[in-house]
Write a structure and sequence with these properties.
Number of strands: 0
Amino acid sequence: MYGWVRRFMSYRSFYLWRARYRYYTRHLDAWTLTTLLCLSGMVVVLWYYWQFTNVPPPRVHPQAAALRLESVSHEAINRIVLVRHGGNPSGQEFTTAAGIRANAQRTMRVRQTLESEMVWRLKAHMLADIADYIDATDGCAPYQCTQVVDRITSLREAAMENAATNRALQRILDGPDDLVPCLESSNRQRLKTGWSDPFNDVYYQTWLLNDLHTMHARMMTEYPKRAPLPWLAAWLSDPEPPRDAGMPL
């Protein structure tokens, strides 16, 4: 028996450790080992259940986030209706400085809906919850991490485009009140009539917010299942591509 361990220890050390092992295990039998194994399994199950039931609550509940996004969407639609039917008859161009400035204010209020403090706080809370989920589970399941990065990047770019459009329209309000603004630039052409602005960027950003909410809700549902033993969930699920460095969360 000593032959296969002679490379690692001396003859004296081997029989000394064997004697110690037999001394401490002299009262162990199959029944005792089975009992210890069952008790260990119960401890593991109780620990997993405790981890399962003590997952930190999300900063914003998915249902509350859905209601807030719905209210934002309805408010944006109401403001778009005011732009469509405000001022001149539908489809007629604005020719006075007061009419153009009033249309600029109505148009800016639509995009300001998506720049409100409530929307920014909601996005921050959902992104923070997603970041905590990724740290706890060491993955982005049930999504691919590349998908998460792409969606967050698209949302950030849409918000920047929204803000840039409003900054361009703000220059009209900052100009002289009695001077008719020139509406030849691309951003100002949306002020010619109540129907000149298609608001595609607003619809797109609203869709991205709802998409972020869907991703947030699914991750919060998976959180208790994956947080206690992330390696087990990763082993049982499909393999994911490696996460990109510098993920914008």
